[in-house]
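ARCHIVE CARD
Drawer: 12
Card no.: 0347
Subject: one protein chain, sequence and derived structure
Cross-reference: see card 0346
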Amino acid sequence: MKTSHNFSILFWINKSRAINNKAEIFVRITVNGKRANIGVKRKIDIDLWDNQNKKVKGKTKESQEINRYLNLVQARLLSIYQDLKYKGELITPQLVKSLYHGENINSKTLLELLEYHNRKIENTLAPGTIRNFGITENYINRFLKKNLKTTDVYLRQLNYKFISDLEMFLVNYYPKGHPKAMSQNTVMKHLQRLRKIINLAYQLEWIERDPFLRWKPTFEQKQREFLSANELNNLETYKFLIERLDRVRDLFVFSCYTGIGYSDIMELTNNNLIIGEDGNNWIVTKRLKTKTSVRVPLLGPAKNILTK
């Protein structure tokens, strides 16, 4: 059935997952083109489903009971929609679905979001990136405890002031063991990570507005210096008295000539070495962070380091 504001309710069966010719009944909620599906916890024989009228065929006791139940589900969903409309709230299919299940999206908290995000990235991002998100989360917890005198906040409480106060907290925070407070760029990195987490909540429709909408990162431009050919040669030929430093130098020089980062170098094995069409040795690998392919020739000083 359809109502105003492009809200509709549609019952359907999932034939693709039918077992022994029995399929589960679902109800699809559509609001302004966006959808959400709800399993109504009823299964029927595929041949008994009336696809035109969206109900169970026949007048058996079972058919009549299921159809009565579907009418109740429809009435419940319509009641939720009408209630939200009466209150003037922003209506989304995810919100209707959550209220149908007895959940309240407005009660979602920041820590719940952080836990969900952690589960989402644990098998998809590089270990170093996951560790960085963990550091950001620790600072957020410190901010909540010190500035807001709490351990958690509702997502609906997040606004521009929350972000601004967190930024000031990070700017003035002295990490243990560090000689000074964080740099401006480090603070921006932490806020950017939080922004990605909050954006996840927005996509999940756990929040109605993005508190970062008006926030703009302000990075300090850093002038990077490059080694000259002479400086690099002096580093290559320098004799370190400590073997550990000699190994560190080799890794650095190897990275200079191949363009492969430290974390990727540490993952290299003999399986990453191949003979190219030109007859020379090549390194073929994938970057841990971006998963992009890397193919570089193994020549000169980089090759000499491997044969040490």
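Annotation on reverse: The chain has ten helices and eight strands. The radius of gyration is 29 Å.
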